Amino acid sequence: ERGLQLLELGGSVEEDYIRIARCFEATRQRCCRLEQDGHRAREQLARVEAERAALEVKLKHARNQVEVEMKKRHRAEAELEKQERKLQLVLELLMREPWGSEALSREQCSVLSALAGRRLGAALAPVRKSSAVDESCQSLLSHSDISYDRTEDDVVRS
């Protein structure tokens, strides 16, 4: 009887060992898959970090270019204002002279007023026609319209 009990227990133990071995194998396979997934994730992370670094370099170059262009624009606007002041002085001088207003035809006054802008337009061409199109030489965008904010750069990297 005891022998039979041992045989019965031995059969049950063998099945338990087989189940445990199968569980270990399933766990080993899962670990292998997770290891492969981790390796793929590290490779993808390296690619994304390289792309991010390249984009940061491009962003830095673009910001430098914007800064250079803004400086050029400021210089050009300052030169434009300087030339407008000179033109305004010349036109005022022409209008002060007794021969100035007589020597200029209406067409010349119109051209000069267009060059001088709106400030002298009324003085030079009193019969100026109204136009639906604004022909002033001013830029549609001023440098103050451009917003340049670096707060998005201050990302905390961990």
UniProtKB/TrEMBL annotation:
One of its GO terms (biological process) is mitotic spindle midzone assembly. GO terms for molecular function: GTPase activator activity. Signal peptide: none annotated. The keyword Coiled coil applies. Keywords: Coiled coil. Residues 38-97 form a coiled coil. GO terms for cellular component: centralspindlin complex; cleavage furrow; midbody; nucleus; spindle midzone. It comes from the Eukaryota. This is RGAP1 protein. It comes from Notiomystis cincta. The gene is Racgap1_1.
